[in-house]
Amino acid sequence: MKVEIINPEKGIFDGEALLVQLPGKDGSFEILDNHAPMISVLKKGKIRLVEKDKQEKFFEVNGGVVEVLKNKVLVLAD
């Protein structure tokens, strides 16, 4: 699935991933390929991303919003 993580200053990540784990306001959750459409609020924490080559990346966020639609994950991070 395509993942894009951006904040007001710049793009943080833009690429393909197998899994994205996010710090949701009501608890941590994961998004995999072909996830149902959704919008959720994020709290301060770490985003864990597993790329197609199985490498893990971590991104610290202070909150934000995530939108999942048509196998694309868009994170608008603070």
Mind explaining what this structure looks like?
This protein is mainly beta and 78 residues long. The protein has a single domain, classed as Sandwich (ATP Synthase, domain 1), CATH 2.60.15. It has strands at 2-6, 11-24, 27-32, 38-42, 45-51, 56-61, 64-69, 72-77. Strands 1, 2, 3, 4, 5, 6, 7 and 8 form an 8-stranded mixed β-sheet that branches. The N and C termini lie far apart (23 Å). 21% of the residues are buried.
What are the key terms here?
78 residues; mainly beta; ATP Synthase, domain 1; 71% strand
- By secondary-structure content and strand pairing, the structural class works out as mainly beta
Under CATH at level 1, the class stands as Mainly Beta
The CA-CA distance between the termini, in Å, is 23 Å
* Secondary structure: number of strands: 8
Question: How many whole angstroms does the radius of gyration measure?
Answer: 11 Å
Strand content: over 45%
Number of domains: 1
Q: What is the chain-wise order of helices and strands?
A: EEEEEEEE
- The percent range for helix content is under 10%
User: Mean of the pLDDT scores?
Assistant: 96
Give the overall shape: globular
Q: Any low-confidence stretches, pLDDT <50, length ≥5? A: none
Provide a count of the helices: 0
> What would CATH call the architecture?
Sandwich
Largest sheet: 8 strands, mixed
Q: CATH superfamily assignment?
A: F0F1 ATP synthase delta/epsilon subunit, N-terminal
CATH topology: ATP Synthase, domain 1
